[in-house]
Amino acid sequence: MFIKVFLTVIFLAVMVGVGIYSHKQAKSVDGFVLGGRSVGPWLTAFAYGTSYFSAVVFVGYAGQFGWKYGLSSAWIGIGNAIIGSLLAWLLLGRRTKLMTQHIESRTMPDFFGTRYESQNLRVVASVIAFIFLIPYTAGVYSGISRLFEMGFGIPYEYCVIGMAAFTAIYVIFGGYKATAMNDFIQGIIMLFGIVTVIAAVLSSQGGLANAVEKLSELPSDADPTVNGGFASWFGPDPWGLLGVIVLTSLGTMGLPQMVGKFYSITDESAIRRGTIISTIFAFIIAGGCYFLGGFGRLYDPVINEATGKIAFDSIVPAMLVTLPDALIALVVLLVLSASMSTLASLVLTSSSTMTLDLIYRDKKSLPGEVEEGSIDDIVAEKIELRKVVVMRVLIVFFIVISLMIALNPPTFIAQLMGISWGALAGAFLAPFMLGLYWRGVTKAAVWACFIWGVGLTVVNMLLGNPINPINCGALAMLGGFPVVWFASLLSPKLSKGYVDKMFECYK
Description:
Blueprint: H1 2-21, H2 29-34, H3 41-52, H4 55-69, H5 74-102, H6 108-115, H7 119-152, H8 156-204, H9 208-216, H10 238-250, H11 256-264, H12 268-293, H13 315-320, H14 325-359, H15 377-406, H16 413-437, H17 443-462, H18 469-490, H19 496-503
Helix pairs in contact: 1-8, 1-14, 3-8, 3-11, 3-12, 3-14, 4-7, 4-12, 4-14, 5-10, 5-11, 5-12, 6-7, 7-8, 7-14, 7-15, 7-16, 8-12, 8-14, 8-15, 10-18, 11-14, 14-15, 16-17, 16-18, 17-18
């Protein structure tokens, strides 16, 4: 216990110290939200990866999908690396950096408002982002707190409140730069931790070959007379597995907290280096998490006494509880690192979106245009400081709401994330990505995609989830592309001169 407490205290002290150190760089809006648009490739790549993978993946997804699909769940991690990291950086990295800097966009709703010449789009996008980031944040709190409960014996409620408090401190003090620096430290802990934990778990099962052999002897859920499905290449349910891969991989390209990383990177050469770093990081972390979860059936499942069903969120903690204390301390730091980095990104994204796109909606001029009624530098500086203060207040507000959900979570972690990612990426992915490449996307098409993504997710939830939230989220994302395409063909186009100014940055 001394080792676990000592390492955790050191870790939390470093996180808070980085926040205080970065305070001077977080006094302007650009400094607080984007780190001054001067964050290097290593910090950006690790910030992207650590925001991507949290307790939701390590505890919720690895446990639930490892149980359902066995070793084939490792394909989810491979998909996360290839689609969610490599392809996302290749498709979005350079174009997002250039266009958002060209139009002086700081948030994804701000991008929609300026790119499609509609302040109403900007407002609605900010409301969607704020509402649907909350269940994801609650899922992250729930995941880390369950592991803390296992490792320290501290009641779940105290764990949730403690994580929220420490995350708030360093984000409020240091903004994005503190978040990125802490993400780098946390990413190193995650890399070392996942490799060590996998080795320890396999060793406890007599090695890799022996563990796979044990898994191959387990009967299928669908047909108890058939063995081997959980040790096969594509598992007992390949189509269900594909839905999870789509949701967890493609979804990153439409999430405000992920795309925002490309806003802040220094230049195009940094994007090329960041692409490689981010992809390798994802292969190790995501691949390792799901590979580890694939052996969950070799351990006795935890049964929820109230429902009589398997408590999926407790599978991974049950796998780890027999490890030596030093390794449990490492696991706690691993998941703490993953979760605090994701929480920091979520609360910063939500607060900046609400502040800049709902409370202070400054009308921007495009490059080459003259602003009317410009204000002097002193007044402008006061407004900037006021915006930063409002963002810090909203960080606290967002954390409190998420805490209330996390203290009484309505469903499994995986379902919380499915609802959040499905609505956000279903609404934002297609109009954002196509808006970077295709001049023909119309304002009406963006509205149609917002209605499609949010409407499908909410209706499915209100009807009691007749479509599994994971599959519903994947459908919302993929369906957004034909929705935007058809709506763009049938609705009035933006003026050619306005769109040409948007795309000048790519010349």
